[in-house]
Each structure stands twice: as structure tokens, then as C-alpha cells.
Amino acid sequence: MSRGRRYEEPKLNLKKVFAVILAIIVCIMFICIIKSILTKDKEQGKIASKDYLVAFKDNKWGVIDSDGNTVIDPSYQEMITIPNSKKDVFLCIYDVNYETGEYKTKALNSKNEEIFTQYEQIEAISNKDKNDNIWYEDNALRVKKDGKYGTINLEGKELASCQYEEITAIEGIKNALKIKKDGKIGVIDSEGKAVLPTQYQEITNLGKDNKEGFIVKAENGKYGVVDYSNQTILEAKYDAVERIHGNDMYVVKQGEKQTLVKKDGTEQLKDGYDEIKAILKNADHGIIYTKNGKYGVMKVTGEVAIPAEYEELKEAKTGLLIAKQNGKYGIIDLQKETKVENKYVSISYYEKADIYIAEKENYENDIIDNTFAIRQSGILIDLEEDKGYIALKQGEEYKYYNFKFEEKKVTEIQTSNTLFKSKKDGKYGFVDKEGKVIVDYQYDDVTEQNRYGYAGIKKDGKWGVVDKKGDIVQEPTYNLDDYLKIEFIGRWHLGKDINMNYYRID
User: What is the CATH number of the domain that holds 408?
Assistant: First the structure.
């Protein structure tokens, strides 16, 4: 009997399997790339996500969003505080007794609901920069319960329990809160974690951030320096420690006399000057000092590098100084060689851009590069070191330059804008990215579109506003001649005091 042929089970062709898998992966990657491109295209012209801002109307305070909608009706006598513009947490003060200084506080959300009601008091933790501009810790609130203070985040989560007699910001630096317990001072960060224990009589910051360390007053009444981990950097044995340091050197006082010391306490300089103003970036270059009211430079050996004959000296970059003489500013090197003539009202150095902005008598600016050549001149409108551009008003035109001083179109700079100011026959209007006229040339002046999509329009001496499509939101009716900056959100315009950062309707 014949036997039928036995068929073996088919085997996998691995080459074909891998080819199929590879094809699938390529397809997925292709889809992701297309999706990314489409998303990017979609986001072109996208306006910033919603913010919450302080509003002022009829002498009362409230809250609006970045579309110009009223969130909290202006009904409060005291200005509402918004610690973080992206979060709907609004802090209100009410029932103020101006004679005793007593007041009540509450927190509201965007639904006008009271939140965090378990606390007796809720406040933002305010701070200020070197120009006295006020800012707030953006994710920490000071709360009071049973007479003691703690911190919570903007979602209401407890960060530091209510156990302290005081909680305040350390002036000028972020993420460092001074606490007081049993009469002793310590530091926590904005998340409530201990940085320095409560064992000091006083604490202040040494530099521009918490990582540079802290000047502390110990129980013996003397001052020293500790780092972020509470390790001793400079022994607490001085009558004072100045906020001047660099190259592991510090300026201290015994009595009224300043001395330059190393971190091990070894004296570097103690004579030849009235006051030490700064330690230069290069240790070999020494210090900026004053004598008889004039500024000079002295090496750590005591050798005078530049005699004290200037009205002011400030280090711009290593080896270069902004110098004031006869009431005017210029730039010199450490050999006293003039790099920029003393003819300016002020000079500022921008490190990231590596350029100098020199202000002239007529409020115009010369933009000076690192070879000390004047590359552009005009009224400085904006300088964005992170974005890499300068905006200048040159004559009647607004021009944009990168830090190589190549002129850029506004469409290359303000990539999210949908409208761009344009001038024709002495009048202003708006065009889109392709140059198509969206708003006719009919205005005496206009502003560039802001991050929320609004642009100001001026006609017959009055200001109004258009939205991102060029539609009129408010006809020109506002007289804003006394305002430093013209900016709109819906029908609301920026307040006169721009440091307060509020919007109003007259």
C-alpha cells in the first residue's frame, strides 16, 4: 500500500518577518513626523495659554483672564494678589483696619469660590529685585493656623507645617524662605524642605541666588558664611560680612574697618583703601576700591593697578571696566586704555549677547560689540538675550537684529504673531506673514501684537485695540499720553504704574 507524502509544517521566513516589522516601524515614524509637522503648523500663530491678571475698575480691584473676560468682578478695596498667573488662586485682603493694621484674607478660585478655608490667614510670599520690582514665590503660599505659620502650594498641599513664628522671603533670591522658631532663624526652600536649621540670630543671602551661600549671625553675635548644606565656609568671628565675594575671598569687618580675607580667614588686604566695592572675576586682578570718594583697582598684593581717580568703576567682563569720568561713562581696560570714549549717560553690558548698550543724551542708544565698534544706533525697544534679538526704533521704523547684527524681519522674530505693524503714506496698519493687508493704513500709531494677540491702535490722539484677526475690540477712545507702555487685553489697558502689572478700564 502506497503511503501518501508527508508535508512538514511550514517554517517562518525570518527575513520576511523582519522586513514587515521594519516597514511597520517606518510607517509609524512617518505618521509621527507628519503629525509633528501638522502640529507645528497648527501652532504657528497660536497665542499664549490663558493667564490671570489683576484688574482695576471704578476704584475697585478684581481679576480678568488673558481674553479680557472678567473672572472676579472688581469689588475689592485692596489690590488682589495673583502669585502665579497660570493658576486660578487669587488672594484677597478685606476688612482692613487702617489704624491698627489688622486685616482679613481669603483665597478665591476662578469660580469665585473660597478655597483653603482651614487657615486663619493666606498670603503670597512677596520679594523684590534690585530695582525694587515686587515678585512672588509662584508655588508657595504662607498660611497661618493656631497662631503659627507654615506653607502650602497652590493646590493646597502642605509644604511646611504651621509651626513657625515667622516666614519671610530672603530679599532678592528665589527658593529660600527665612523661618523663625523659638526665637531662632533658619531657612527652608519653597517646597518646605530644611536648608539651614533654626539656630541663628540672623540670616541673609551672600549673592544673587541661594547656591552662593548665606551670611549668618551665630549665637556669639558674630558673622560668618555657610553654604547651602550648612557647612561653614567662613568662621563666624567677624563684626560684619559684606555681600562682596569672589575667588574664595570675602570682605569682612572688624569694627568699621574692611578687610579682604580668604575663606580660611587669612588676610589678603587691609590697607590702602577707604572701601572695597567689588572683587574682580580674575583673582590676579584684585579689587575695585575707593579712596577719597574716587574709584580705582588694586591687586591683592596691595599694588595699585589703576589709581583712584574715577567717579565710578564697574566690571563688565574679565579685564574690562565701565568707567565714569566727568559725569559720563566709557569703557577702559586694566591698563587704563580707553576702549569707549566717556560720552554716554550710562553703559550696560549684556553677558549672553556679549554687547554693550550705551545711552546717549537724546535717549537713543549705541549698540557696541565686543570689539568696541558701534554696530547700530536707535531707541532701544527690546533686548531678548534668550531669544537672541534686539529691537530698535530707528527714525520712524522699527528694526530687529540678531546678536551678529544681521537685520531680521519681524516675522522671523515674532513667530507666533498673526498681525505685524506696517506703515504706508504716513499711516499705520497691519499685515499678515505674507504681507497681505489685514487692517487698512488709517492709524497715527499702532503697537506690535502682544503675547495674548492684541494690538493697540491710535487715532486722533486716542487709543483703542484690535484682536488677533484685526477686528476692532475697542474703538480709539482712551487718552494714554501719560502712560509709559501701551498694551491691551481686550478692552483693558495696562495701568500707569507698569511695575504693579495690572489692567484697567477707565
Answer: 2.40.10
